[in-house]
From TrEMBL:
Gene Ontology molecular function: dioxygenase activity
A family per Pfam: 2OG-Fe_Oxy_2
Organism: Neurospora crassa (strain ATCC 24698 / 74-OR23-1A / CBS 708.71 / DSM 1257 / FGSC 987)
Entry protein name: 2OG-Fe dioxygenase-domain-containing protein
């Protein structure tokens, strides 16, 4: 028998701060002299060089004011380790499947050797499972605890780095239909315990390797000539209690307003996996935005997956796949059930001066001064600098 719990009332939402004081005019990162030099060096690499697929020698992040913090994951130091090449080969196979199928699901048991091969440590894999214990209340969803952070995949410097704080917004025009659509939301920020975790950094490198150069349907008002991508990272805990139902996708059928979405499972407590708890459904783009997972048309259903084990990871082309999720259902209905995830939203920058995109004024590429982080990327040389 299907179990039902009361849905969250939107009246109990945490008020959003009206004082967004950090949105000040600034010089973009790529306008700095140091950055221009890095870009020119990267572009001068000979694309026919068989070693051009390797990142340049890494001398630390090009950002300044790092306060002594250095990156902990460096793929350039793995080039003489056989496990590194094994991981690269397997990731390239997954990338080929992604290009063909427009989505892939990688089981956690397969993700572990990939992340270790890229340089993650087993201690950080263990720590990653506990990081969601330090989340705060969500700005608009009472059944969720959250943090977020912004990162830049920069294919000119061949690195991924932390960006300064900005609020977050998704709109109906981006196929996101919920009570808080179009609202400027302010989340608590991801801290060093996550961003300096080598397993997390390896997940960033993994996503960059899979998505770089993959041709996708374009979204309006995004700059597809840019060599930078914005990655908004969410660390989320969805909570179901005896009095409230936790819904990972309260909005129903939707897209995330980006080019590529990646979701990685960190763990759960008291969640009834056998009862189709938190199942992800992927739909044809003809499916109605906002429809509940119980209302979807069978002819529009492409596939379904369920994150069940640590590091189970789904990656999909967001411009070509709508998706929805079922609620988090508890094993013991008298106790709290939780589901912890990392969500990586990655898109091209918003076109400046174009007008109309909800994120135009909250799309900074300035590095984060208080929480700096930057690690080198591996880029497949055969596709460097061009789409596939």
């Amino acid at each position: 028998m299907t179990r039902t719990l009361p849905r969250a009332s939107t009246r109990s939402l945490r008020p959003i701060s009206a004082a967004i004081t950090r949105l000040q005019p600034h010089r973009l990162y790529h306008e700095t002299p140091h950055s221009r030099a890095s870009v020119e060096t990267a572009r001068s690499l000979n694309p026919t060089d068989p070693f051009a697929s390797l990142p340049p020698a890494w001398s630390g992040p090009p950002t300044t004011n790092l306060k002594g913090i250095r990156p902990r994951l460096d793929v350039t130091k793995r080039v003489f380790n056989p496990s590194y090449y094994t991981a690269i080969a397997e990731i390239m196979k997954l990338r080929s499947k992604y290009i063909t199928n427009r989505s892939i699901f990688v089981e956690g048991s397969d993700m572990v050797p990939l992340l270790l091969g890229l340089g993650a440590t087993r201690a950080d894999l263990d720590a990653l499972q506990r990081v969601s214990n330090n989340l705060y209340s969500d700005p608009t969803l009472p059944f969720r605890r959250s943090r977020n952070g912004r990162f830049c995949f920069d294919f000119s410097t061949r690195s991924v780095r932390r960006l300064e704080f900005q609020p977050f917004a998704l709109s109906v025009e981006e196929d996101f239909k919920r009570h808080d659509s179009g609202q400027i939301r302010v989340f608590d920020e991801v801290q060093d315990e996550l961003q300096l975790n080598t397993a997390f950094q390896a997940l960033l490198v993994f996503k960059g390797m899979i998505c770089h150069g993959v041709q996708t349907t374009h979204r309006p008002r995004l700059d597809y000539s840019s060599d930078k991508w914005v990655c908004t990272l969410f660390n989320l805990r969805t909570v179901t209690t005896p009095s409230i139902l936790g819904e990972p996708a309260l909005e129903g059928v939707h897209t995330d307003g980006v080019d590529h979405t990646m979701t990685t499972y960190l763990g759960s407590k008291n969640m009834d996996l056998a009862a189709n708890s938190a199942v992800t459904f992927m739909h044809d783009m003809n499916e109605e935005t906002g429809a509940k997972y119980t209302e979807i048309k069978p002819q529009n259903l492409r596939s379904r997956v369920q994150h069940r084990h640590f590091l189970d990871t789904l990656l999909l082309v967001d411009t070509e796949n709508k998706h929805s999720l079922s609620p988090v259902l508890p094993l013991d209905e008298t106790k709290e059930a939780t589901r912890d995830m990392l969500i990586f939203f990655t898109r091209r920058p918003v076109k400046k001066g174009d007008g109309g995109h909800i994120s135009e004024n909250i799309d900074s590429f300035r590095p984060h001064e208080e929480l700096p982080m930057e690690v080198p990327l591996f880029l497949p040389g055969a596709i460097y600098g061009k789409d596939e």
